[in-house]
Amino acid sequence: MQEGRIRGVENRRVARAAGVVGLATMLSRISGFLRDMVVAAFFGAGLTTDAFFVAFRIPNMLRRLLGEGSLTVSFVPVFTEYLNKKTKAEAYELANVAFTLLSIILVLVSIAGIIFSPLIVTIMAPGWYIDRPDHYHLTVFLNRLMFPYIFFIALVALCMGILNSLRHFAAPALSPVILNICMILAVLLLMDYFPEPITALAVGVMIGGVLQLAMQWPFLAKFGLKLKPDFNFANPGLKKIGLLMLPAVFGASIYQINIFIATILASLLPSGSVSYLYYADRVVELPLGVFAIAVGTATLPSFSEQVAKGDFHELKGTINFSLRLILFVTIPATVALIVLRIPIISVLFQRGAFDIQSTLLTAQALLCYAVGLWAFSVIRVIVSAFYSLQDAKTPMIAGIVAFIVNGICSIALMYPLKHSGLALATSIATAVNVVILSIVLKRKIGAFLDREFYHSVFKIFLSSLAMWGVIIVIEAIVPWRNEGHLNERLLYLTLCVVAGMAAFFTAARLTKCSEMTMIIDVVRKKLVWAKPRNNG
After folding, report:
1. H or E segment at 67?
2. Start-to-end CA span in the chain (Å)
3. pTM value > 0.90
4. Higher pLDDT, residue 5 or 130
5. 329, exposed or middle or buried, with CB in 10 Å at 0-12, 13-18, 19+?
6. Which of 485, 493, 494, 504 is nearest to 342 (CA)?
7. Can you say how many angstroms the Cα of residue 485 is from the centroid of all Cα atoms in its chain?
8. Nearest alpha-carbon partner for 154 in 181, 182, 170, 175
9. Closest Cα partner for 337 from 296, 307, 368, 292?
């Protein structure tokens, strides 16, 4: 009884943390879509947007590799161990040492990136160096302008690791909103001041990076931590982080690496291919970021605390619950993205320079990314479990296998399916990664999927089929028209989404899906807590 009560408390703790991160990420994704709408309307899907997306992809990928992809997952388990087994002063000293060393490394990386930008762009887009010299030079210029962004955003990732370990999730999750606002304002206010208008976007990126880092400082101070230089690089905790981080650069970021490879290969395909993949990836990132990454972010401190206490039975229970929670969202999201892929792209981006043809080609990529959404989501929890165990080697090895699979599939599929083949290759590779890691994790800690897990997944599938059926009925009654007015297209999409969600949640409630019960319970407790108390 006591064990079940403890597990229930931890599950609710994870669900609440995931809710905070999910809500904050939802705001960042909405602002991100507004940003992409502005970019699509002013620049479309062509040569200049391809140049910007390639140039931005490089520092952004480094952010995922050095920041969220490896630093956070390496830092949180060690920092949490210090918080549980040592004094807060020792934990904060570790944070200062990590901050100092990371700052030095990032300055060197930024300088190297600016100097070697022509070489980097040549590797990223080899087709442009020979066939499109003007395109190539614009990309080099934009890349040099944005490369120092990695300095600011990787330090934001360190702050995120610290705050998440202290169970504060909102500020780091909200920081991307600042970046999106800066980019939107830069396009609207600054583009007329540059010979090449898209330069304004790059300026917005740099301003956003500075403000994102500044946003974290007050929240760190609230916990009594003011990051300052500390050159005690002999700190044993730093060595632990380093040993985890080196393989984590590859293992935790394989999805982003595969997207990076897709960008390189897309530069060999017809103009616009890079942009189609970018816009489709942005749509997939909505459910992925709002919930899957939210759960992954929320679970890492919980996993790390359970491992630090040696409570592996509870660890398995939390992994099981986290996977069920993720699939409760990603399975219906997959169905919705597949069925409504054209309406979604059309409503979000089809305006100005982004025409119907761009919508159809982007929707093809979205279909191929959507079939892998479950894998993109589940991998976040599985990898977090390995890093809480301070095992970075296994995700790295699995990542190498997935990387090879992605390369083979990309080359095999990119010519018959064009850019869609590259998206499909990413989905296949990530699924392979999930299977490998799940098998190894089971051998490492024992079975973590029980009968309740499979019952829940079955109920989620049934509820998703109910949602799909409702959308099909709406399509039969009110057919979709690509050339319809924006208001007409928006009304159709809104009707499908609202009716589909109502059908899914109703079916989940009727089948007594445990995740639905948990979400309702958390919401009810929040509402009760928020009610004003009568002190009279």
Report:
1. none
2. 37
3. no
4. 130
5. buried
6. 493
7. 32
8. 175
9. 368
